[in-house]
């Protein structure tokens, strides 16, 4: 198939791109990106304690919490929640694909391919939602749980969890899977984020929380909120303003085959969502001065809520302190561009951002300082896959703190591999953002994106390998030109759920 700029689109495909509000020129640019490729990020060195990552003692934490709690700025909790639970149950789907009966189930479970989940399946009854599984086993299979073996119970349990006519958990949004059990009261991560908002993202007795979701699931989220909102308010003393947004179709990207020709499915161009980087558009539209960002699945059992909230408030206090420092410098440059004020700003940029570029005038300095600010929590790297904090030269040739994903790194270069191995910390997606300028105006966040920081990944569709293009990640290239501060936070504040069996880790279970 020809590239979009060399072909006449069918009426159906022209209608499709019009519907998505994607231009023919955008298609051309996306295909050109596949052809040219995306250069890897050039890592200068890892960000480490004392070299890009701040650490806090208890007195500092207390002071930062007090600073945050004394502010009157409008606060909002922004939670990406569009993900389906499909990946949580991927390994179980693979197991059941080869398990037509109990004997085959046990054989495969004891094989090397499934050794990683064998122990977890033996503890399957500890999952928060297991009482629902038991109800379905009794109803569907007409068996007495007391009279069947543990292996048979697990076999039935996995079927119940996955079957489209039973619990069908893999087809729910991840935010509506029951994560936690409070003496028989089950809670989804969607609900748990309201308790978190009440703990650290409220002003007075009000809290705002924004979820980015899939439009097909909005009814389910709204129904859940309506069912629990009175209980939430009674338990927290907080009234919640909740709203939702979707990833825009205009941020979808075309898929190509391995020869870089656009993929057609039944003669129709095949598009994929542009990844979490598309959410910079959603973030740009919410109205608040301070925005907490945290993924839907990274939510502990409420036994860990106090510890979690402590560090969120401390990060917000650092944001306010850094914002005040920058605003003071900008005001001085505006009011009196003296040699002293210019020198002070130059020194701040060099010391805080490690940026040794030359900014000779007040105008240059204001432009460099006047950016959105993010304070990012970083946890000790214990081998989990994902992005990490590094010093790089950004697209403006500034030395810059960035969160870099493995897919962006040059793992063929011995020099780059050495830098990667020296990394000490990991990105848990724990951000507090200041998105208003010194005059209180909201920044246009789309102007601080480096559009050259996308990702090309290999996927499959209908059994064929394809290439997919993701936009610059929300906390990667979409925030490349922000002023960034990285702060070490405890590993106890990070408890993502990538597999359903992550719900069996201590941070998702009640303390005994």
TrEMBL record:
SUPFAM superfamilies: Nucleotide-diphospho-sugar transferases
DUF4301 domain sequence ranges: 11-508
InterPro entries tied to this protein: DUF4301, Nucleotide-diphossugar_trans
Name the record gives this protein: DUF4301 family protein
Organism: Psychroflexus maritimus
């Amino acid at each position: 198939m020809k590239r979009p700029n060399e072909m006449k689109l069918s009426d159906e495909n022209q209608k499709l791109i019009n519907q998505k509000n994607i231009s023919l020129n955008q298609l051309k640019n996306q295909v050109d990106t596949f052809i040219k490729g995306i250069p890897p990020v050039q890592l200068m060195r890892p960000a480490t304690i004392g070299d890009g990552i701040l650490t806090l003692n208890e007195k500092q934490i207390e002071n930062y919490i007090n600073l945050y709690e004394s502010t009157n700025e409008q606060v909002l909790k922004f939670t990406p929640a569009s993900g389906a639970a499909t990946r949580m149950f991927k390994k179980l789907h693979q197991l059941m694909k080869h398990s037509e009966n109990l004997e085959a189930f046990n054989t495969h479970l004891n094989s090397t391919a499934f050794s990683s989940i064998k122990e977890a399946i033996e503890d399957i009854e500890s999952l928060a939602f297991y009482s629902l599984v038991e109800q379905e086993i009794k109803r569907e299979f007409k068996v007495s749980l007391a009279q069947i073996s543990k292996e048979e119970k697990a076999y039935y349990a996995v079927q119940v969890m996955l079957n489209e006519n039973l619990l069908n958990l893999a087809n729910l949004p991840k935010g509506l899977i029951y994560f936690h059990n409070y003496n028989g009261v089950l809670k989804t991560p969607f609900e748990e984020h309201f308790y978190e908002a009440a703990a650290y993202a409220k002003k007075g007795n009000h809290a705002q929380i924004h979820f980015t979701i899939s439009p097909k699931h909005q009814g389910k989220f709204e129904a859940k909120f309506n069912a629990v909102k009175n209980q939430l308010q009674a338990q927290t003393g907080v009234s919640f303003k909740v709203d939702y947004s979707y990833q825009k179709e205009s941020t979808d990207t075309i898929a190509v085959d391995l020869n870089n020709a656009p993929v057609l499915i039944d003669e129709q161009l095949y598009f994929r969502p542009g990844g979490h980087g598309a959410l910079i558009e959603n973030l740009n539209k919410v109205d608040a001065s301070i925005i907490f960002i945290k993924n839907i699945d990274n939510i502990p059992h409420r036994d860990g809520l106090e510890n979690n909230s402590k560090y969120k408030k401390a990060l917000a206090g650092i944001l306010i302190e850094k914002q005040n420092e920058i605003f003071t410098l900008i005001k001085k440059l505006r009011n009196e561009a003296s040699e002293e004020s210019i020198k002070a700003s130059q020194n701040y940029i060099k010391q805080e951002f490690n940026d040794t570029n030359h900014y000779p005038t007040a105008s240059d300095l204001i432009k460099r300082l006047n950016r959105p600010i993010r304070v990012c929590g970083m946890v000790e790297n214990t081998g989990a896959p994902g992005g990490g904090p590094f010093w790089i030269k950004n697209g403006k040739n500034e030395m810059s703190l960035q969160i870099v994903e493995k897919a962006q790194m040059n793992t063929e270069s011995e020099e780059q591999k050495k830098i990667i191995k020296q990394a000490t910390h990991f990105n848990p997606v724990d951000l507090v953002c200041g998105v208003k300028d010194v005059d209180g105006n909201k920044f246009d966040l789309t102007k601080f994106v480096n559009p050259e920081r996308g990702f090309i990944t290999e996927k499959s569709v209908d059994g064929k390998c394809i290439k997919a293009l993701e936009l610059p990640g929300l906390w990667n290239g979409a925030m490349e030109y922000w002023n960034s501060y990285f702060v070490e936070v405890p590993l106890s504040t990070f408890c993502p759920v990538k597999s359903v069996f992550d719900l069996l880790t201590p941070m998702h279970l009640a303390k005994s």
